[in-house]
Amino acid sequence: MFERTINFIIFRIACPALNTTRTQRSNWHFDTQAVDHNTNVTLTCAAGYWWQPPSLSGHPNTTKTVNCGSDGNWTPALGDCVPISMNILRELFDIVS
């Protein structure tokens, strides 16, 4: 009787680097330079910016944790922080001027 062994090779791809050019354009910064698969990175918006949409409770999200998946993609998508404006706050909280 013959015994056969099947070996699998799993390729993991590092995610794109979170570089200075990206952070200046997107108005956020991060706490680590690691981009290996299954790495969590916390992105923090610059002062006066937040992630859209706001949280379900209506509070501005100023931080977001993203994960580098084995497919080489950040999840959830990186996106950009947007300026907090009075118009957005009025819409969120139905403020009448």
From TrEMBL:
<protein>
    <recommendedName>
        <fullName>Sushi domain-containing protein</fullName>
    </recommendedName>
</protein>
<keyword id="KW-1015">Disulfide bond</keyword>
<dbReference type="InterPro" id="IPR000436">
    <property type="entry name" value="Sushi_SCR_CCP_dom"/>
</dbReference>
<feature type="domain" description="Sushi">
    <location>
        <begin position="13"/>
        <end position="83"/>
    </location>
</feature>
<keyword id="KW-0768">Sushi</keyword>
<dbReference type="InterPro" id="IPR035976">
    <property type="entry name" value="Sushi/SCR/CCP_sf"/>
</dbReference>
